[in-house]
Amino acid sequence: MTIVVGHLATPEGQEALRTAVTEARERAVPLVVVTSGKRPLDECRSETEELVGRLGAGVDLRVEEGTGDLAEDLIRAAASVGAGLIVIGLRRRSPVGKLILGAGAQRILVEAPCPVLAVKVGSEA
């Protein structure tokens, strides 16, 4: 089994990456990190390797460059590696916004070839 996650410089993206590293370490499985395609691959790889070094010593890591359509890239990567899990980050929404899931997240949930773990930053009491 492999875990797939996107690399985004948002709080939600960073939480998804932290969670994916933790899951990969605890399950002793490889981690594929897909970049957003909006920043240089080397910059994303360096940030990801630094985080993995702090959180998940021993995690088998691969960083892939995305095309800019993160939902499509995550689905494709998960299918190509036979992933057992995709991790995505969700942002907090207003009460009305909670009726509508983001288009990218919805697409991943519907089209993913494996289970999807959705994480959010912080929580409300």
UniProtKB/TrEMBL annotation:
<dbReference type="InterPro" id="IPR006016">
    <property type="entry name" value="UspA"/>
</dbReference>
<dbReference type="InterPro" id="IPR006015">
    <property type="entry name" value="Universal_stress_UspA"/>
</dbReference>
<dbReference type="InterPro" id="IPR014729">
    <property type="entry name" value="Rossmann-like_a/b/a_fold"/>
</dbReference>
<comment type="similarity">
    <text>Belongs to the universal stress protein A family.</text>
</comment>
<protein>
    <submittedName>
        <fullName>Universal stress protein family protein</fullName>
    </submittedName>
</protein>
<dbReference type="Pfam" id="PF00582">
    <property type="entry name" value="Usp"/>
</dbReference>
<feature type="domain" description="UspA">
    <location>
        <begin position="53"/>
        <end position="120"/>
    </location>
</feature>
